[in-house]
Write a structure and sequence with these properties.
Elements lengths: L1 H6 L2 E6 L2 E2 H12 L2 E4 L6 E2 L2 E6 H9 L5 E4 L4 E5 L48 E4 H7 L38 E5 L2 E2 L21 E7 L4 H4 L6 E7 L7 E9 L2 E14 L3 E12 L2 E2 L4 H4 L23 E3 L1 E16 L2 E17 L4 E6 L12 E6 L7 E19 L2 E19 L4 H9 L18 H7 L4 E22 L2 E18 L2 E18 L4 E12 L3 E15 L2 E12 L3 H4 L4 E9 L4 E9 L8 E12 L6 E14 L2 E2 L3 H6 L8 E3 L4 H6 L5 E5 L3 E2 L3 E15 L4 E16 L8 E2 L13 E11 L2 E10 L2 E5 L1 E7 L2 E11 H4 L9 E8 L28 E9 L2
Parallel strand pairs: 3-7, 9-12, 31-36
Antiparallel strand pairs: 1-5, 2-4, 6-7, 8-11, 9-10, 11-12, 13-14, 13-47, 14-15, 15-18, 16-17, 18-19, 19-22, 20-21, 22-23, 23-24, 24-25, 25-26, 26-27, 27-28, 28-29, 29-32, 30-31, 32-33, 33-38, 34-37, 35-36, 38-39, 39-40, 39-41, 41-42, 42-45, 43-44, 45-46, 46-47
């Protein structure tokens, strides 16, 4: 009786005519029934409006197509496309539902009406967080890396790179502790300043079909660099109709963005291809447009005055640099035989980034011989030279990635072989700096016509002298060429009544990395891995795997993982997994050239602000990093009308011998231990009289193996879906609670718990929440996202006693199908208008002394503030 009642239940439906994938999603939202399709139907479905049973509604949707369906059970409806009948193989008809056999399609694409599940990472654990193309279009980010701000596991939601690079940094473990894959294949690290990770801003957002995130050990298949997790990005492969999109936006004072994209596809029975073209550019946002950097006298907040010569040097800085990027992404699949497919991918990106800095700053001892020195003795002078103009750094990057491969299926096995080559070239040009040697000579000159006057701001500058001390533009070249060969075999082995899932694979990788300022480096890595999933009972599975990486310049490194899964119901699963991985320092970490830059710091030994030279780069050798991970949790997909998902996961991670860059404030706070890395000028008689050291000149913050990091916490996730009088409402909530984040920033220092305490390496909030609410109506959607960070303790070398207030940022997006609103205008068919506001209430970054001269916590705050955009998408039908 209950089954009959469920089957005959009627639903109030409102599904306008639209592409099949969108119509099936609407069907799922309004009936709660899941749909599985072997192929994505290349049709438009609908309209269906009124009261229907689920079966009646699906019949109405498919009425104008050659598709049919069959009820497998109460939860699933399988769409079946008619196939040619082989008369010689015709067999007597049998009663019952058709058998779903993998060999009927070489690589079936699963389409679920509530969410389009692009091909996920083929590992032992399912992806825990997914964004499909529909999610991306609703959020309408202009850059791929911006999707990461929607992850509660990304503790640093804002851009921490002055050059605009975007990295996945899950759990706050560092750029090189999260693996990035493209179509399930690992992408090598970006050259330059990436520190061993891939810069997501090089990928055009228009080419991304979806993103999936895994948060448990994956070292066996994807290598030992995934202690924090794995981010997989899928390229769009099937584009039904040519599409053009134009997006324009900006914030107050700058950061104006323009994005133009075009996507098209070719579909056939044997050949499918797609191409995406995209242009993106952004104007700079300078510090002078924001009060925080326009006036660096932070005494108004209870902080320090970081002005130099009464000038705020950060007013010249780029809050966001200017960017211009052009990209082409193409992919193709050719079915060679019934169970054999060849594939290829191409990614080409050319990007130019311009960063602006303050004019040069003179901060050094001027001898008594300088004729403009009124003190008749050497004296320390800090003077901004605005007459020289702002310093600039221009970076041009070209990335070419190509993949070719072949894959095939047998009744219970799938194999794949792929060859990938990634070439990246970058050129960095620094201009408008001063030549330090010629500057020293000009300050020491006794001839007034050849001496530099840094004592009288009102005195006119000799432009000829300025040109003499100006340094010529300096160029640095980065090159990287990585070739990877990968082969995998996965399937099932039958031993008695049980089926053991099996993964076998091998990988060979050769990388050549070169920089103009250092000797080239080469590395070869040969890897082999295996993983078995052994059913212990009907509902319990044990999986175990191991991987060995033979690294040419390090030796053999072994990684392993173990998982136990209990699934008593289709909708409920409990899983625990542990792993150990050992990874070599990346070539990006080893090949960074030594170079100097200037920055302002507070010298606690002299109790004054100072501008110093900072030495950065890499040593000749760094030790491997070892990671120990453990996760345990459950996921529940109830059949309730309103509750769609509940999940919780406990995680614990430990890193040994991790690679860090010492922070300036930590070195200065422990100068007695690290005096070799801090260079000062000689003391003056006045300094000697009060017993203080000489002025700072140089600080060495080159990379080191910095000790141990331990962290553990809990992830919570819930999804609600309900039909209301206003429309269908979907709510998602994700919370990450960090119970402990203990680290030693420098060797020899005790570990300190950083959770909920500001830190110059990046603040780890005690918890972070991301919530989204979406209202869907026939004419479009209204979606809002809330990102909350609680209050945490401010620190400047030592705790300040000040709490940095909590902050909640609200984003609002409205997407309207113009065809639905203006159906009489045929020119609007397939058009969508999206309006969006990020940081609706224009919340400024909270003041924090941990940011020192920045005046805010750069790992949590953002000076872009409110950003408004409009986007128009048109699909040619």
């Amino acid at each position: 009786m209950a089954a009959a009642a469920t089957t005959s239940a009627t639903y109030r439906l409102n599904i306008p005519r639209q592409p099949a994938i969108d119509a099936l999603k609407a069907f799922k939202r309004q009936t709660g029934r899941r749909v599985i399709s072997i192929d994505e139907p290349p049709f438009e479905l609908g309209p269906v409006m009124g009261s229907y049973t689920a079966e009646e509604a699906l019949k109405a949707l498919l009425r104008s197509t050659p598709l049919g369906f069959t009820m497998q059970d109460d939860a699933f409806i399988i769409l079946t496309a008619p196939r040619p009948v082989d008369e010689r193989a015709r067999a007597p008809a049998r009663r019952g539902p058709p058998t779903f056999r993998a060999e009927t399609a070489p690589e079936p694409t699963v389409v679920v009406s509530a969410k389009r599940h692009f091909r996920k990472v083929p590992s032992s654990s399912s992806a825990e967080i997914t964004f499909d193309r529909e999610d991306i279009e609703k959020r309408s980010p202009s850059q791929t890396g911006s999707l990461l701000i929607n992850l509660s596991q990304q503790p640093f939601p804002m851009n921490r790179r002055a050059n605009g690079a975007q990295f996945a940094e899950l759990r706050g473990l560092g750029f090189d502790a999260t693996v990035v894959t493209l179509n399930g294949r690992r992408v090598p690290p970006t050259v330059g300043e990436s520190a061993g990770s891939f810069d997501l801003s090089l990928l055009p957002i228009g080419a991304i079909a979806g993103m999936s995130v895994e948060l448990e050990p994956t070292a066996v298949e994807f290598g030992p660099s995934a202690a924090g997790g794995l981010v997989n990005l899928e390229l769009r492969k099937q584009i039904a109709k040519p599409t053009v999109e134009i997006q324009y936006g900006g914030s107050d004072g700058g950061a104006t963005e323009r994005l133009v994209g075009f996507a098209a596809g070719l579909g056939g029975r044997r050949l499918t291809s797609s191409i995406v073209l995209e242009h993106f550019d952004r104007a700079p946002l300078l510090g002078a447009a924001r009060d925080r950097w326009r006036n660096q006298d932070y005494r108004r907040f209870g902080g320090s005055d970081y002005r130099i010569d009464r000038a705020s040097v950060n007013s010249y800085y780029s809050v966001l640099p200017s960017v211009r990027r052009n990209s082409v992404v193409a992919s193709s699949n050719l079915q060679l035989a019934e169970r054999l497919t060849a594939f290829g991918e191409l990614l080409l990106t050319d990007r130019q980034v311009r960063q602006q800095f303050s004019p040069p700053v003179v901060s050094q001892v001027v001898p008594a011989s300088n004729p403009y020195n009124p003190f008749d003795t050497e004296v320390l002078v800090s003077r901004l030279l605005p007459e020289v103009g702002p310093r600039r750094r221009d970076t041009q990057t070209t990335l070419v990635r190509s993949v070719v491969g072949i894959k095939g299926d047998r009744p219970s096995w799938h194999w794949e072989f792929a060859a990938a080559n990634t070439q990246e070239n970058a050129r960095v040009v620094s201009s408008n700096d001063l030549d330090q040697q010629r500057l020293d000579e000009a300050l020491a000159q006794s001839d007034p016509s050849r001496a530099l006057n840094v004592f009288d701001p009102a005195s006119p500058w000799d432009q000829r002298l300025l040109e003499q001390i100006r340094d010529s533009p300096g160029s640095t070249y980065f090159q990287s060429d990585t070739t990877t060969l990968t082969g995998t075999l996965r399937g099932e082995l039958g031993i008695g009544p049980r089926r053991i899932s099996t993964l076998l694979g091998g990988e060979w990788e050769h990388t050549h990395s070169a920089m103009s300022t250092s000797a080239p480096l080469q590395r070869q890595v040969a890897s082999a891995f295996a993983q078995l999933g052994i059913p212990l009972t009907a509902s319990t599975t044990l999986s175990a795997g191991s991987r060995i990486d033979r690294v040419s310049d390090v030796g053999d490194l072994l990684s392993s993982q173990l998982a136990l899964e209990w699934q008593p119901l289709d909708s409920f699963k409990v899983r625990a997994a542990s792993g150990k991985s050992v990874r070599a320092a990346s070539l990006a970490n080893l090949s960074q050239p030594a170079w100097l830059f200037q920055t302002g710091v507070f010298d606690p030994a002299r109790q004054e602000a100072s501008v110093v030279d900072v030495l950065v780069g890499s040593p000749a050798r760094l030790e491997p990093v070892t990671a120990h991970t453990f996760t345990a949790g459950f996921s529940w997909l109830p059949e309730a009308r309103w509750l769609r998902k509940l999940g919780a996961k406990y995680w614990r991670i430990r890193l040994d011998d991790r690679i860090t860059v010492p922070s300036l404030s930590f070195l200065l706070a422990h100068e007695n231990i690290y005096s070799d890395q801090i260079i000062r000028s000689s003391t003056t008689e006045a300094d000697q009289a009060i017993g203080r050291p000489g002025p700072l000149r140089r600080i060495d913050i080159t990379r080191i193996n910095g000790g141990r990091l331990e962290t553990h916490g809990v992830d919570l996730q819930a999804s609600l879906d309900a039909d209301t009088s206003l429309g269908n409402v979907t709510t998602n909530l994700a919370i990450t609670v960090v119970d402990k984040y203990s680290s030693a920033e420098l060797p020899g220092l005790p570990q300190q718990d950083r959770a909920g305490i500001a830190n110059p390496y990046g603040t780890i909030p005690r918890w972070r929440a991301v919530a989204s609410i979406e209202l869907q109506r026939p004419f479009g959607t209204v979606a809002t996202t809330l990102r909350h960070v609680p209050a945490y303790e401010d620190v400047y070398i030592e705790p300040t006693g000040r709490m940095i207030p909590a902050q909640t940022l609200v984003d609002l997006k409205v997407a309207v199908d113009l065809e639905h609103l203006f159906d009489r205008f045929l020119g609007l068919r397939g058009s969508r208008l999206t309006l969006g506001v990020e940081n609706v209430f224009d919340e400024p970054a909270r003041f924090a002394e941990v940011g020192q001269s920045a005046g805010y916590d750069m790992s949590q705050g953002d000076l872009r503030q409110r950003f408004t955009f409009v986007k128009v998408t048109h699909e040619f039908r």
